[in-house]
Design a protein that fits this description.
Elements: H1 8-37, H2 49-66, H3 69-72, E1 86-91, E2 96-99, H4 111-116, E3 131-140, E4 143-153, H5 159-206, H6 221-276, H7 283-315, E5 323-326, H8 327-345, E6 348-352, E7 359-362, H9 364-381, E8 388-396, E9 399-406, H10 425-430, H11 440-450, E10 455-459, E11 465-472
Helix pairs in contact: 1-5, 5-6, 6-7, 7-11, 8-9, 9-11
Length: 474
């Protein structure tokens, strides 16, 4: 079971969430922290209820020294208060004994008016016009002698907010910059660097270097792209190698075809010149010259025909006329023909064909061509004394295995991988000197593969050779 790995989309989403939430969290966190640092609970801050209680205690203390409430109010004249703020003292009857703003001194204030201070009846509320109040009773010797009222503009509440905005914004900006630097570093290592590696590898491929894979270990989309890129590079390298091999094969083909065409043509030309120059003085010699010319012309015809057929097979132009035939019957008919040819060549021939092989869907003419090519190859390379060729057929694993074995000079192990290449030089030295064109095995390979089978050769030098190919059973 494979472990789950986050993909690029999820990582980018997380990075986006962090880029948004962390600066905002820093903004609100620093604002709350700074606001909590404000001394709004201090007795020296007019916005705190403790401030009013402190003033009330000073008035009561002064009352004990002066003996009257009026005498105690002189202490209030020394108070320094923010603009728009005020302090009032009312006696037990509601008469304003002191008003720092001088607006209601001597006026009687009823209880509901005092309550109305804390309720705004304005339809269009304006913070600039709103006042906040602290009311503290003046309890002297267990009796309420009056009230102390502290009033201040509601806008004073906003002072710490405005004061802390700059600090809060600075902290948020620094946090955001630090986060963006971290994210940029992370994205550079996780996203940009792998892309740069792939760009670098692509440039190397453009210059013909296919041996520099991208080293990306992540399991996300970039990792999968790197794996696909490396696989593509590997296939490009294989394709390039194959292309070079094909180019070399083309050059070899041109060279070998030129040689194989030039040799019989040179012989034909030489014998024709001999005839024209009158070197063949008698009829017997002329007939011998003409026979050689005829045989060389047949060699040229076979070579050209083989080249033409191989080219059509490789391009898939040559159609296979496949029909369903009984394998045992078809092979026995071919075996009778090969037995006669082997007898004429002075070679022993043995056929081991089971009676009840399955039906196969093949082009009988093409399968005969494969077997004939292999048979003629075996005849040419069978042993000089007591030579023999064996044809075997066997059915297993939904394939019919057909093999032709000889007791000839054999093939070196180094030559085996190249036997089915066109005009392989090893085949040239062994086959064409004995009448072959060097294309029979290449044609056999193309025909077998067109039927969905495979072909191979097994041999030891001096121990003969065995060629085996398969035909799939329908």
């Amino acid at each position: 079971m494979t472990s789950w790995k986050p993909g690029i989309r999820l990582k980018l989403f997380i990075a986006f969430i962090l880029a948004v939430t962390v600066p905002l969290s820093a903004l609100f966190g620093s604002f709350i922290f700074l606001m909590n640092q404000e001394k709004m609970a201090s007795p020296d801050d007019i916005r705190s209820p403790l401030y009013a209680e402190k003033i009330a205690e000073e008035v009561i203390k002064e009352y004990h020294q002066e003996g009257s409430l009026l005498g105690a109010l002189t202490k209030l004249e020394a108070l320094e208060m923010p603009a728009g703020s005020g302090v009032e003292v009312l006696d037990s009857e509601g008469v304003v004994l002191y008003d720092s703003r001088g607006l209601r001194q001597g006026v009687t204030v009823r209880a509901y008016e005092i309550a109305q201070m804390f309720i705004s009846e304005q339809e269009n509320f304006s913070l600039e016009e709103q006042m906040n109040y602290h009311v503290v009773p003046l309890n002297i010797e267990g009796e309420e002698q009056g009230l102390l009222i502290i009033s201040y503009p509601a806008t004073l509440i906003l002072d710490p907010l405005f004061r802390n905005l700059v600090s809060t914004a600075f902290i948020a900006i620094i946090t955001a910059l630090a986060l963006f630097l971290l994210l940029a570093t992370f994205l550079s290592r996780w996203l940009i660097r792998p892309l740069q590696e792939m760009v670098s590898a692509t440039e190397k491929i453009a210059h013909g270097d296919y041996e520099s894979p991208v080293n990306i270990q992540s399991k996300d989309e970039l990792g999968r792209v790197a794996l696909a890129f490396n696989e593509m590079t590997r296939k490009l390298a294989q394709s390039r190698k194959r292309e070079q091999e094909l180019e070399q094969s083309r050059r070899d083909l041109v060279a070998n075809v030129s040689h194989d065409l030039r040799t019989p043509l040179a012989s034909i030309r030489g014998y024709v010149e001999g005839l024209l120059d009158g070197l063949a003085s008698d009829q017997e010699k002329r007939d011998r010259y003409l026979q050689v010319i005829y045989e060389k012309a047949l060699t040229l015809e076979r070579l050209i025909q083989d080249l033409f057929e191989l080219s059509r097979l490789e391009q898939g132009i040559l159609r296979m006329e496949k029909v369903e035939v009984p394998a045992s019957e078809m092979l026995k008919e071919l075996a009778e023909k090969y037995a006669h040819d082997a007898e004429l060549a002075g070679i022993s021939f043995l056929a081991e064909i089971p009676e009840h092989l399955p039906m196969i869907e093949v082009d009988p003419g093409r399968i005969e061509q494969v077997l004939t090519n292999l048979f003629q190859n075996a005849i040419r390379h069978s042993g000089p004394r007591k030579g023999f060729v064996t044809l075997r057929a066997e059915y297993k694993e939904r394939f019919i295995f057909l093999s032709l074995a000889d007791n000839g000079e054999g093939i070196t192990r180094s030559e085996l991988p190249y036997l089915f290449d066109r005009f392989y030089s090893g085949e040239k030295s062994r086959s064409r000197q004995k009448g072959g064109t060097g294309l029979g095995l290449a044609i056999a390979k193309e025909i077998v593969e067109a039927h969905g089978g495979t072909i191979k050769a097994e041999s030891e030098l001096g121990q003969g050779a065995t060629f085996t190919f398969t035909i799939p059973v329908k």
